[in-house]
């Protein structure tokens, strides 16, 4: 399955320190194969891979996540995006009833879905009406009546005198019936064929023209794989629709169809059908579908937690270090610089905080190369030296310079800068904000 493949791709990334161009290419190739195997249409795969690659290249190396987790995060976010971002709500008619028409191949799950939708609507205190416009199959009307009974919702079906045999006439009359009976929703179940054919399309188009639905839903079986794209396109051309309902998501299908249909038709997926019972129904949630495709719900949760915890720990630690100057070590100094650089333009906010202006200036002078050098120097120090920089005498400076591949003057510069920062913090702690004019009377 798609998730198995992705899992093996990601596990090969585990333990890597940083994503190389080669890693990205290799991963992209694997994800491409995985998506194709999951029946995602080729143009969709291409677009998806291009986006993921672009982001993987541009992404800053995250402190909280390892490379595998980072790629999973990108793939997940792009999946959510391609699946439509947010859940789409039903558009209501200005004047009731709101008319929803279902179209799709035979066996796609229209009748079952009609029952689910009316139950869901009725549970929210609506008064829906089911309409039987599938007069093709002998038992279709009875099937809808059974569904209506289960959902405790009335069914409008052809009777002698109200247009027997003509689904267009039944549809037209059902809207009138709904108005008279205060049904605020009308759900029209239509006929389908096993394959796309002109006569069926025409019938659906005629029903559409007769009642002008507020929503036309294309109902599609998620298990049909690559065929989903052709069928979706045929219905788009033949009838047109506003949104898609995916059915049989309880089957093996991992969601290749969802990905393709959303991308190719540009229509949002609105409902998800996940079983034969009336309750097996949900609004379509792109984020849930994405984690289903990835099948890595736990991993995604862990990633979120890791990121949140990391950021929180770091900020708390820093706040603690800033509060007591005796604890402010070279390690803190380094962390502080890394943190401020990562914040990017946000670090300008520091300039607005009393006393922080100087600190900001000091840190803003540091570019990425400086930061690499400073990191190397501090890493070449012993833990004792980092905790107590006063220990760092001439011979230690030479050793540190050699160890980190810099000049002794660079080490001197860093140590000086550190002592300045420490002094500044001490002043702040003692109440005097450096750079702030004294306030008379305080
Ligand atoms: P229609 O021809 O489009 O009206 O399709 P039906 O609603 O009659 O469904 C065809 C078959 O698929 C029936 O046996 C349903 O019970 C089954 N079915 C419909 N939706 C789902 C679903 O979400 N999951 C599963 N497992 N079966 C479904
Ligand atoms: Mg049916």
Summary, kept brief:
The chain has 442 residues and is of the alpha/beta class. The protein has helices at 2-13, 21-37, 42-58, 67-82, 110-123, 140-151, 167-180, 198-211, 227-238, 256-265, 286-294, 297-323, 330-343, 356-364, 368-379, 383-387, 394-404, 408-429, and strands at residues 98-103, 128-133, 155-156, 185-190, 215-221, 243-247, 269-273, 281-283.
Write up this protein.
An eight-stranded mixed sheet has the order 3-2-4-1-5-6-7-8, with helices on both faces. Helix 1 runs antiparallel to helix 2 (21-37). The protein is elongated. The protein has helices at 2-13, 21-37, 42-58, 67-82, 110-123, 140-151, 167-180, 198-211, 227-238, 256-265, 286-294, 297-323, 330-343, 356-364, 368-379, 383-387, 394-404, 408-429; strands at residues 98-103, 128-133, 155-156, 185-190, 215-221, 243-247, 269-273, 281-283. Helices cover 56% and strands 9% of the residues. The protein is built from 18 helices and eight strands. The model is unreliable at 345-356 and 432-442 (pLDDT under 50). The chain has three domains: 1-86 and 286-323, Four Helix Bundle (Hemerythrin (Met), subunit A) (Up-down Bundle), CATH 1.20.120.140; 98-284, Rossmann fold; 324-429, 434 Repressor (Amino-terminal Domain) (Orthogonal Bundle). The protein is α/β, with parallel strands linked by helices and 442 residues long. Strand 7 (269-273) and strand 8 form a beta hairpin. The longest helix has 27 residues, at 297-323. The protein binds guanosine-5'-diphosphate (GDP) and magnesium ion. Guanosine-5'-diphosphate is lined by residues 104, 106-112, 192, 247-248, 250, 273-276, 280.
